[in-house]
Amino acid sequence: MLTSRNDFAHWFAYRCHLIRLPYRILQSARLEMKNFCGIEGVESVFQPKQIRGSNDSKRVQACSRACRWLATTGALAASFVAWGNVTPALASAEASTASQNVAARAVQLTKWWAYGKETHVEARFDTEMQSGLSTAQLADVWAELVAQKGSYKGVSGARLETVGGVPVVVVAVAFQNESAGIEWSFSSDGTVTGLHIVLLPAAWSRPWYDKRAMYAEEKLTIGSGYLKVPAELDVPVGKGPFPAVVLVPGSGPADMNEQVDGGPEEPLRDLAHGLASSGIAVLRYDKPTFANPVAFAGLKNVNRVTPQVTDVADAEAATEYLLQAKNINPTEVFVAGHSLGGFVAPMVVKTIPKVAGLIMLAAPTTSPAQLLINQTRYLDELGGPLTALEQANLTRLSAEVKLADSPKLTASTPADELPLGLPAQYWLFFQDYSAIRTASSLTEPILVLQGTSDYQVPSSSLSIWEKALAGHANASFDSFQSLDHMFMPVSGKSTPADYMQPNHVASVVVRTIATWVKQQTNS
C-alpha cells in the first residue's frame, strides 16, 4: 500500500493518531524507510581531537528534502521507542553479550556520525541503504541537527528492543539546547537497515489533582492465555466498599496509561489517579497487542486481529474482575471507554448486565474507516492546499474505505485492498456491530463527553449521540471547549504535534466524571 515517502508519513499519522497497529504491521511499514537507515560491527571507539559543532559553517546548510523528511517522519516514529536512560553496556543485567554488542555498535555509529566520519557509517549500510543515502546527505542531516539543537555534547544512553524480529537501538544524544534520539535498525548480520531521528519525549508528571496519598496502587493481571495482561487497580484510602470504573483504552497496542506516541501525555493515568483521588476506584490495563505483540504477529495469528479479541475481551475480563474485587461495591461498577474503547464499551455493558453505567469519551458514532478520510484530509490541509499526490492518496483511501464498509467485503478480501492494510475480519467487526444501536438498547445510565478541538473524532459526534439517545431515561452529555481528543487543552487547531507536549486531562473532565458517578451511586 505504501508507494512513496508521503504515503509513509500519512501512514504514520494514521498509526499514531487513530489506530495503533500490531507490531506485525508496523514492521512492514518500517521497511519503507530503509533508505534512511543504518549499522554494523564495532571497532575501537573513535575519539577525535575536535568535535563537529554549530560553527562548522560548511556543514550547516539547508537540509535536503530527503533530510527534512527523515527528521519529520522520525519524530512521528517516536512511538516505537520505549525510552529509558540505559547505558549500552548495562542495558539489562540479564542482557546477552550479543545484545550488548548491538547497543555498542549503535553508540559507535552515532559517535562516528557526530565526529564527521560519515564514510565509516555508510560502510556499514546494507546495499539498499547505500543506494539511497549518501555520505553527503548524512552530513546534511547532522548539520541540520546541530543547527536546530546546538553543538554536540555526547551520548547519554541507549535502549535496545526488538521490533518484528529486527534489533532496534535508540541512542540518546545530548546537544547544547536539547537532546535527540538516533534510532538504528540492524539486519541479522549486523548491517544497518534503518536510521531515524526520533524524539526523546519528556516524562509524564502528576497533574495537580493527582493526590498520591489518597489512594493505593495494586499491580495485578487480568485475562488468560495470550490475552493475559498487566493491570493496575487504584483504590481510595479509607473505608470501602467504593464505586469503581474500568477504563477501556483506544485502538491499537495501547498501554494502561494510553501513553500517546511515546510522549509525555498519559490520559488514562491522569483519569485513573484523578478519580481515585476523588474516592472512586479505577482499574486500567495494557491491551494484549501491547503486552503480547507476538501473539498477533504473522499470518498464523491473523484471525486474532479483530476488535472482539484486541479490544472487547479484556474489557470484559477487567469488568468481571472489578465485580468480584475486594473493597469494591459490585453494584457500583462503571465502564468508561475512550475513542475506540468508547465505541466498544456499550457492547461490554450489554454483555455484563451487572454494570451500573456507561461513560463514553470521544466515542465515534461510525466505523473508524470513515474517520480515516476526515483525519487524512485534515492533516493534509494543515500544510496548505492538497497536492496532486495527497489528492491521489485520498482517492485511493476512499476506495479502500468504501470496500471496508461495503457488503462486498468478505473474510477473503485481501488486506492490501483495505484501509491501513488491516485484515478483512477487522473491518467486518464494524459491519456487524453498531455502537449507537447497542447504546440505545441499554437501560443503564450513560454519560457522553466530547472535546470541541478533537480532530480525530469530530465534535459533531456529540449531537449524533444526543439524537440517538434522546429517548433514554438517564443519558447525560457534556462538551468541553478547546479540549482535544485526549481531553487536554490546546490553543488553535489541534495537531499531532500537540500530543508530544507535556499536558494533562483537564480537571473539569475528571470532576465531571466523578460527580456523575457519585450521583448514580448516591455516594
| Strand residue percentage | 15-25%
Distance between the ends: 53 Å
**Uncertain stretches of 5 or more adjacent residues:** 1-97
Q: Averaging pLDDT over every residue, what do you get?
A: 80
* Individual helix count: 17
How many β-strand stretches?
A: 12
Rg calculated over all Cα atoms: 24 Å
Major sheet attributes: 8 strands, mixed
- Give the strand line-up of the largest sheet: 5-6-8-7-9-10-11-12
Order of helices and strands: HHHHHHHEEEEEEEHEHHEHEHHHHEHEH
What structural class results from the helix and strand content? alpha/beta
Task: State the helical fraction.
Answer: 25-40%
User: What characteristic shape results from the CA principal axes?
Assistant: globular
Would you give an account of this structure?
Mean pLDDT is 80; it is low at 1-97. α10 (307-324) crosses α11 (340-351). It is globular, with a radius of gyration of 24 Å. By secondary structure, the chain is an alpha/beta fold. It contains 17 helices and 12 strands. Helix content is 36%, strand content 18%. α11 (340-351) links the parallel β9 (328-338) and β10 (357-361). The chain has an 8-stranded mixed beta sheet with strand order 5-6-8-7-9-10-11-12, with helices on both faces.
Which key phrases capture this entry?
about 525 residues, alpha/beta, eight-stranded mixed sheet, four-stranded antiparallel sheet, 17 helices, 12 strands
In short:
The chain is 36% helix and 18% strand. It is an alpha/beta fold and 523 residues long. It is globular, with a radius of gyration of 24 Å.
